[in-house]
Amino acid sequence: EPDVTIVSGLKDMVVFEGDDVMFRCQVSHENARDVEWKLQDVALQNNEMNEISVEQGKVHTLTLRKVTEQDIGTISFRVGPHTSTA
C-alpha cells in the first residue's frame, strides 16, 4: 500500500467567538486510513460540534461549529507518520 503524504497542509485561522471555522488538509491518495484530527492533543470525533469529512477522496476537512474561547489552541491533522498543525 502506498505511503500517504500530506500535499497541502493546514493554515492558521482567526475567527470570532460563535463563528464556525473550517480546516482543510489534502493528502496524496484517496481513501487514506489511519487519519486523526486533534485539538490540543485531544482526538476529535465527528459530532454536532465537530464535522469531519472527506471531499473528492483526498481533501480532509474539519469544521468546528460555534467556537468558544475553549477552542483556542493547536489543531493537528495526522495521516500515518505525517502531521500538519495550525
From TrEMBL:
Tagged with keyword Ribonucleoprotein: no
Gene Ontology cellular component list: cytoplasm
Keyword tags: Cytoplasm, Disulfide bond, Phosphoprotein
InterPro entries linked to this entry: Ig-like_dom (IPR007110), Ig-like_dom_sf (IPR036179), Ig-like_fold (IPR013783), Ig_I-set (IPR013098), Obscurin/Obscurin-like_Reg (IPR052385)
Compartment(s) where it occurs, according to its Swiss-Prot or TrEMBL record: Cytoplasm
Domain Ig-like: 2-86
Pfam families registered for this protein in UniProt: I-set (PF07679)
Protein name per its UniProtKB record: OBSCN protein
